[in-house]
Write a structure and sequence with these properties.
332 residues; Serine Threonine Protein Phosphatase 5, Tetratricopeptide repeat; 0% strand
Length: 332
């Protein structure tokens, strides 16, 4: 949930250049890294360390290149080897915490951050990773506590503010979520995800008019920056459907599906809107596709069962109702 949007930047900027790292081979590898040639850079740094074991921070730099490739297994290997000979490298320890986080190894990530904190106090971005680990573990109170600490250190850090908003939303502390998302948009007016999530928080508070405006603002941003983020259309369309404005809801939801044809949520909401509008064949097509993408969705199976019943497919309807019941029972 939270992890997918994180941008890794700060740790990649750390450098620990020593005299031994002034060699031509090291400089060449560093140049490859700066040019974005991450495969070649990683291989060059790893080869350099084989020739001069532990003499430079080549494995640390190789890990950064591997992270850019999203090759977290190799990055972990490089960092583990580097830390074995440089156990007090705070940069390596915090970077390892990030690598474990991206690999979904939250407990190992927290352990690495704890080791890093024993060398130097964490900065805001370090605490952000700790907070997101707790968020993935479902401990939203601890996640919020660390994000608040991070915000005090770096009050204009967009990621810290954005994730604080997400955590406060999960805690149902909607006023705090609204405040955080508004702070993000105040710093970066083109932050479409913050604008969209502001709509969710306002909708949660029951302020549907303001929520609709927030979603429309997020859509305006997306139409300008064109990042391929379909959620503003999805959330606006869902809100319009839930307020029985099907005429406007269906085109908006179709746009969400056009942007991301593999969004099970967008297909579900479009199918539900088409079911309400009695466009049963389209509803069937979109709900069946939604279930292909998200086979454990109770609302999708239930809505498809209703479609089958309305078109006279009693056997298929009974099967979907049965699946809905089984899924419901498995959740309790």
């Amino acid at each position: 949930m939270l992890a997918k949007t994180i941008v890794f930047a700060a740790s990649l900027m750390f450098s620990t250049i020593s005299v031994a790292q002034g060699s031509g081979a090291y400089a060449d590898a560093l140049s490859l890294l700066a040019q974005g040639k991450y495969v070649e850079a990683a291989q060059a740094f790893e080869a350099l360390d084989e020739k001069q074991p532990s003499a430079t921070d080549a494995l640390l730099q190789a890990a950064k290149a591997r992270i850019h490739q999203q090759d977290y297994k190799s990055a972990e290997s490089d960092l583990t080897r580097f830390i074995a000979s440089h156990p007090k490298s705070d940069n390596a320890l915090y970077l390892l915490s990030f690598v474990y986080f991206r690999a979904g190894l939250t407990k190992q990530s927290l352990e690495a951050a704890t080791r890093g904190a024993a060398v130097r106090p964490p900065i805001g971005d370090d605490l952000k990773i700790v907070a997101l680990d707790y968020g993935l573990l479902g401990d939203f109170d601890e996640a919020a506590r660390y994000l608040e600490m991070a915000r005090k250190m770096d009050p204009k850090n967009l990621e810290i503010l954005y994730f604080l908003g997400r955590i406060r939303y999960q805690q149902n502390r909607l006023d705090d979520a609204v405040s955080a998302f508004r702070a993000v948009v105040g710093i970066d007016p083109e932050h479409s995800k913050a604008a969209d999530n502001l709509g969710l928080a306002l909708e949660g508070k029951g302020d549907l008019e303001s929520a609709e405006q927030a979603y429309r603002n997020a859509i305006e941003i997306e139409e300008k920056i064109n990042s391929g983020y379909e959620r503003p259309w999805l959330n606006l369309g869902r809100l319009l459907r839930e307020t029985n404005d099907l005429k406007d809801a269906i085109p908006v939801l179709r746009k969400a599906v056009a942007i991301n044809p593999n969004s099970a949520d967008a297909l579900l909401e479009l199918g539900k809107a088409e079911l309400s509008a009695a466009d049963l064949q389209q509803a069937r097509k979109h709900l069946e596709r939604s279930i292909e993408l998200g086979p454990d969705s109770i609302p999708a199976h239930y809505s498809l069962a209703r479609v089958y019943k309305k078109i006279g497919e009693e056997g298929l309807a009974a099967k979907e109702f049965s699946l809905t019941e089984k899924l419901n029972q498995s959740r309790h």
